[in-house]
Amino acid sequence: MVGAVSRFQTRRCTDPPCSLRFPVAADSSLGDRCPHCGGPTERLGDTYDTDDARDPSDAPPGPALEVLLDNIRSLRNVGAILRSADGVGVRHVHVAGFTPTPAHPKMAKTSLGAEASLAWTHHSDSLACAQALRDRGVELWALEGGPRSTPLFSAPRPAPGATICLVLGHEVSGVDPRLLDLCSGIVRIPMLGIKGSLNVAVAFGIAAYALRFDLRSG
Ligand SMILES: C[S@@+](CC[C@H](N)C(=O)[O-])C[C@H]1O[C@@H](n2cnc3c(N)ncnc32)[C@H](O)[C@@H]1O
């Protein structure tokens, strides 16, 4: 791991029916009162550092990744996607339609600075963007369910040196069907519960890491 980022302390509410145990920055007075009941608190143990998860030995064996965000409405979802994109080493973010761009004044609230590290372009028409990517040899893989999809974890391994662009769709209507037609693969993350889909940012995080780190079931 590289770089400790902050110091923290653990505190506990001294009001017995509450007894909430919680972390707070070591130099903050916010922990003097319990955030749950407002009662007095005490410090437990020594202050401690938190580490971040960067390690230069974590080289990804999988393909280079780009991502196409096709009309994703929520600033929070896009911010979360950008943070994961930075983490997994995405090479380019194609922002299409009404998707808020990394330059949106409120983006940093969710992406926490990751927005500044990423190469990106905006395209008013996601289809034109997808066609241009295909023309330069990028493989488009839509992240979507449906009868044409195959499970992500048993999808064919990309050819060595391939660049995959993951295509993500709108929170309600999903990936535009005409955009799906331009994709060479449609991959789904299996859903085992009562819901038919995941939050788009969560789906992106799972798929991007699975592809970059070649996580597969067989
Ligand atoms: C909430 S989903 C859209 C609605 C979805 N098509 C449905 O009918 O439930 C938003 C986007 O997240 C991604 N997504 C969410 N869950 C997924 C899953 N299980 N497999 C693949 N993609 C998923 C897709 O890109 C999808 O277009």
Per-chain topology:
Elements: E1 4-13, E2 21-25, E3 41-51, E4 64-70, H1 75-88, E5 92-96, H2 108-111, E6 120-123, H3 126-135, E7 139-143, E8 150-151, E9 163-168, H4 177-180, E10 185-188, H5 200-212
Parallel strand pairs: 4-5, 4-9, 5-6, 7-9, 7-10, 8-10
Antiparallel strand pairs: 1-2, 1-3
Helix pairs in contact: 1-5
Bound molecules: S-adenosylmethionine (SAM).
What does this structure look like?
The protein is of the alpha/beta class and 218 residues long. The protein has 2 domains: 4-51; 64-212, SPOUT methyltransferase, trefoil knot domain (Alpha/beta knot). It has 5 helices and 10 strands, in the order E-E-E-E-H-E-H-E-H-E-E-E-H-E-H. The protein has helices at 75-88, 108-111, 126-135, 177-180, 200-212, and strands spanning 4-13, 21-25, 41-51, 64-70, 92-96, 120-123, 139-143, 150-151, 163-168, 185-188. Strands 6-5-4-9-7-10-8 form a 7-stranded parallel β-sheet, sandwiched between helices. Strand 4, helix 1 (75-88) and strand 5 form a beta-alpha-beta unit. Helix 1 runs parallel beside helix 5 (200-212). The longest helix is centred in the middle third of the chain and has 14 residues, at 75-88. 31% of the residues are buried. Bound molecules: S-adenosylmethionine. Residues 143-145, 168-169, 171, 174-175, 188-189, 191, 196-198, 200, 203 line the site of S-adenosylmethionine.
